[in-house]
Specification:
218 residues, alpha+beta, Chemotaxis protein chec, Surface presentation of antigens (SPOA), 2 domains, 4-stranded antiparallel sheet, 3-stranded antiparallel sheet, 5 helices, 24% strand
């Protein structure tokens, strides 16, 4: 089937677009005027880009779209029949500091064709998704992030020692130096760990897995 559709831009948007394409900042005209032949030629290249994007969005329908020429509002009857019913899709578009309407006008016959084929393409897409195996909980959790830390747990320090802390102070712990710390994941103790070095980085060497990991209490 062959159909025509119409792309309509408010004049308030046209001139900021032209200004941008000519290297300006997208400034709007203070006084509205008719488009010149040069303006229409510049907007023709914009129309080609818009048509390419529409064709890409509807690529599942295998449509071939060809941009036409710029027409005046009084000449719309050359695009559509007088008694033809139309559907208008209206979008709000902002260029620089100017906001206006961008419209796509389609005949109802084409809209019906579009909806039928999009629905069929969507159903095929959903059915193909259903055939895929759902990842297991183990596979999904592999992409999750957890807070891991190596600490000396359950260490008691007098409050007076904490109050007197300042840069350079050495805080004396009650834990022996040889006592292993704990590797915790989200405050859950998993392994015993000894402090060590890996090149220029601090590290923890795991020594034994705790038999019954328990969440640390505050």
């Amino acid at each position: 089937m062959e159909n025509n559709f119409l792309i309509e831009l408010d004049n308030a948007l046209v001139f900021p677009i032209i200004d941008l394409l000519l290297g300006g900042a997208g400034t709007a005209l203070e006084n509205a005027r008719e488009l010149t032949d040069i303006d229409e030629e510049i907007m023709q290249s914009v129309t080609v880009l818009i048509v390419q994007q529409i064709e890409r969005a509807w690529q599942t329908l295998n449509l071939s779209l060809a941009p036409g020429r710029c027409i005046k509002p009084a000449m719309i009857q050359q695009v559509f029949l007088m008694n033809e019913k139309l559907v208008t899709l209206t979008y709000e578009m902002t260029v620089g500091e100017t906001t206006g309407a961008f419209r796509i006008v389609l005949p109802t016959s084409f809209v019906g064709f579009l909806l039928r084929h999009l629905k069929a393409a969507q159903s095929k897409k959903v059915s193909s998704f259903r055939s895929l195996r759902s990842p297991s909980l183990r596979e999904r959790i592999l992409d999750c992030d957890f807070v891991v830390s190596a600490d000396i747990t359950k260490v008691r320090v007098p409050v007076k020692d904490l109050i007197d802390l300042k840069p350079g102070t050495i805080l004396k712990m009650t834990a022996p130096v040889k006592r292993p710390g704990r590797l915790t994941v989200e405050d859950v103790e998993i392994f015993e760990a000894l402090p060590c070095r890996n090149g220029t980085r601090k590290a923890a060497q795991l020594t034994a897995k705790l038999q019954e990991p328990t969440a640390a209490k505050e």
